[in-house]
Amino acid sequence: MIDDDALNATFAALAHPARRAILARLAKGSAHVNALAEPFEMSLPAVSNHIRVLEKAGLISREKDAQFRLCKLETRPLQEISNWTNQYRHIWDARFDAMDALLSNIKDTD
Amino acid sequence: MIDDDALNATFAALAHPARRAILARLAKGSAHVNALAEPFEMSLPAVSNHIRVLEKAGLISREKDAQFRLCKLETRPLQEISNWTNQYRHIWDARFDAMDALLSNIKDTD
DNA sequence: TCTTTAATTAAAGTATATGACAATCAAGCG
DNA sequence: CGCTTGATTGTCATATACTTTAATTAAAGA
Fold first, then answer.
1. Contact A12 B12 (CB under 8 A)
2. Residue B81 in contact with residue A7, Cβ under 8 Å?
3. Which of A71, A85, A105, B60 has the smallest number of CB atoms closer than 10 Å to its CB?
């Protein structure tokens, strides 16, 4: 299971609200570290570390631009967790169908 | 952001391969704790703790049956991370389209 | 060169996660 | 009741996560 490690890293990275907020910000466009840190109460080193975690999980990439680091959202890990989640979709579909049938039945006998 | 805590718990729970393996097993049907622990090298208390983490995240529920605990997969948190991931789907769609256009262009000028 | 800006690294503290083993609880059975 | 089975709780050790402050690197500009 080679991508087991990848899933571990991706899920762990997404488990922190600050990191999800950073991704949400990057979904609107690439940004530098200071700009990403600005909305947070946290210190800059703390944000820098969150960015490092996101990069190690492949959720973002960083491009050097003089003394700046331009951070960009990467979607591959998100696609992977989407695929992983889809393994279970038939189960919630089945339960929804069962619920639906139950409700129809109640309505019919009403 | 009330469901921020829920997402934290769900993503953190899914970040451990043993816990994902337990969910995969439960996708095939409900099972008792000992049955869930059987495939693992880990001690039973360790598995019991993983199950506790999954339950706190709402990913499973437990039903008492004499001295047994029947564990059942719950899909709501999985649907929630599916929804969360869908926020980003337009980005990877857009990038795929851009890549597609680029490849078409290369083929046209070939 | 000296300074400013952008960002990372280092050191340190607190907290939480993981897992082992031992002990315990709870329920059913002889 | 005493025993077995299923599962949890307690205690401990190790490791990793999160955050801060202080210091450092890297690049640009006066």
1. yes
2. no
3. A105
The pTM assigned to this predicted structure is 0.91
3-state secondary structure of A59: coil
Q: Can you tell me which residue has its alpha carbon closest to the C1' of nucleotide D20?
A: A43
B100 vs B84: CA distance, rounded Å: 26
Note the CA–C1' distance, A79 to C19, in angstroms.
32
Distances (CA, A) of B56 to A59, A98, B13, B60, B62: 26, 25, 9, 8, 11
Q: Quote the pLDDT of residue B99.
A: 79
Number of Cα atoms under 13 Å in the Cβ half of residue A101? 6
pLDDT one digit per residue (tens) for chain A, 110 residues: 458 999 999 999 999 999 999 999 999 999 999 999 999 999 999 999 999 999 999 999 999 999 999 999 999 999 999 999 999 999 998 887 777 778 877 766 65
- Give the residue on B whose Cα is nearest the Cα of A5: B17
